[in-house]
Amino acid sequence: MTKIHKPIPHAHLRSHHKKPYRAHHVTLAGLAILLILTSLVFLAVFYLTRQTAPPTQREDTTRQEQRQVGSQVKLRSNAGHTLPVDLATFAVTVRDSLDDVEPREISNQQDANEQTALQFINIEPKPGNSEPDVRASSLEIRYTETDQSNPELIAQNILDTTESGSYKLVAETTETLAGNEFRKFSYRYQSEITSSAEVYRVIWVANINNLTYTISLQGLIGDPAIPAIYAQVLNEFSFGETLGLQFVRQLSGNWVSRSESNNQYLSDLVSPAVTKIYHIVCASISFEFESASEQQCRAVTGSGFLISNDGYIATNGHVVVYEPADVLVNTLLANPLELSSFLTSVVGLDSTQISRLRSQPEELAAIVAKIYELPDDAVTFRNKQEVILVALGDQPLQPENEADILDLFSFRNTRDIKKAELIDYSYSGKDQLNLASGSEEGFTSSDVALLKVSLDNAPFIQLGAPADIAPGQQISLLGFPNDAENQLVDTSEMAVSITNGTISSVRTAAGGEGQLLQTDTDASQGNSGGPAVNAEGKALGLLTYRFKDDTTQNAAKSYVRDIADVRDLLSDQSITLNVNSPVQQAWNNGLEHYSQSRFRDALPEFETVVELYPAHRLAQSYINASEQNIAQGLDKSESPIMFFAGILIGAGMLALSIKLMRHHRLHHHAYKAREAANAQSGIMSP
What we know:
Elements: H1 23-50, H2 63-68, E1 72-76, E2 82-86, E3 90-95, E4 104-106, H3 109-113, E5 120-125, E6 138-144, H4 151-157, E7 165-177, E8 180-191, E9 199-208, E10 211-221, H5 228-236, H6 243-250, H7 255-258, H8 262-270, E11 274-287, E12 290-291, E13 296-306, E14 312-315, H9 317-320, H10 324-334, H11 336-347, H12 351-358, H13 361-368, E15 379-391, H14 402-407, E16 417-419, E17 421-426, H15 430-437, E18 448-452, E19 474-479, E20 497-508, E21 515-519, E22 531-533, E23 539-547, E24 557-562, H16 564-572, H17 582-595, H18 599-612, H19 619-631, H20 641-681
Antiparallel strand pairs: 1-2, 3-4, 3-5, 5-6, 6-10, 7-8, 8-9, 9-10, 11-12, 11-13, 11-15, 13-14, 14-18, 15-16, 17-18, 19-20, 19-22, 20-21, 21-24, 22-23, 23-24
Helix pairs in contact: 1-20, 10-11, 13-15, 17-18, 18-19
């Protein structure tokens, strides 16, 4: 049955209906067909690449796989604040309202999933998972609608006063936590019963989003400094963000700061660029052209970090520099007979003066420091052999005897360990003696060094700038402390140790040679030369010194050499760092995808890292974990919604163009019919 169309009035006919088609209608149809075909091709590729058999599940459990079933949870308050916390480390209780009589325990992720007011949060270290000095401590976070006109009064109102003791305010400062300014009050608890160890409580107060937040850290024994396990919690706590502010923050800043496990991905982002350094020197020395020592060897280890794609490494000078004067000083200080002979024959002291000097270490250090002022040819090496080796991967050097150590002088590069060349340094062993003697000269150099290994595609850590350094900011110290390699762990593989802390202050080094960043962390031997990185993964300096006086109550402090000293070496050598690293870019991309559970997208990035830099410590473990998560159906990679949208839009455009062409076709036939009728009647068409 043929459909009958209504006659088209002559008034609707135009000159363009003379042609059976219009060019823009055909063009629209062509574009629609092209869009549909393109979307279909990409859709086919998308599905074909994902229809391969799922990867086999590995039997070995990697470090990253363990993290997937870890104990990290994230508490979210509908008032706007969030708190990531490790349930393996802390016992956590919350109150949705301060009026709640019984607190609610958080024991798993399901408990943490419910988003409530969370007006009160309390965390306490679990027994066996913390150092003894923090086991009696706890951290409380609460908020109210109280006016913050008097922060000190608010802090005093939450102190637990008892009949047996009281609190005394010992310090009041302003501190920035997660971008918000807090008033910080430090109190010392004074017991009326006993004069046991000093106990402190620190309270922060701030008004954020019209709410007054108080953070209370109590039970600190001996020192009000923030322990590392709490510093990490405060670093990850997001203060007073409404849902709108959270959304804005997610659209800005780097992805590391936005990830669910900030510290995890920050440390994994930079730790593959951290290296372990072995420096071995064997030699005898001559003093004033006469033999002053037998052949002796010195082997030290330290840390460093790659700062470029082509293998430049920053480390401490005292890790890789050992001069003849250093050997002589160490020989004298280690051998009382040699020291006495030196003081007699060279300095001209008699036995009484020498005996007196031995009870005055400061005076002795000042005299021995004079060795560094002798002419260069006064103290020289004989038969010197030296090698600097850098461990890039997780395989350590493990010489078992002296013969193995001597073999290292003819070491050949491997995938994981390579020889390094000392490019430049700023270091003098005299500085330690200056400090020991109390000399006003202080530091004469900055204790940094620059190495070079043969690499083409390396991960690296970006150097920070002076504007990146500020007191109160959170930092992570990375390195290879010697005491981490002990009988409790498998020492056949190396792992970077990560310590989180805070820059307590920025100080000028004694003698005015550069600046030091004081931190509240306590580092170990072997950490020297490792990077101190901020929350953006930039190196602010090199961990260099540890200071601890004889006062038992005083905590040890670590000092970081400003990264500006490394920049000075680079400038002196006219070195421009190559930071175009395909490895670091792929690693960054892979971690970003992985942090968002886009494991299929992350997998090829990690495989690129392994292909270009086989010594990478973490990429293979992330590959294994990605494959396992894909096999378990946990992947959330990009869906083909954009391709389906292309098909739908193309289909709509095609339907519209067909309708327009059909509409034009009907008018064309009407136009022809009118022309034929006019021709029969002798009327000219318009």
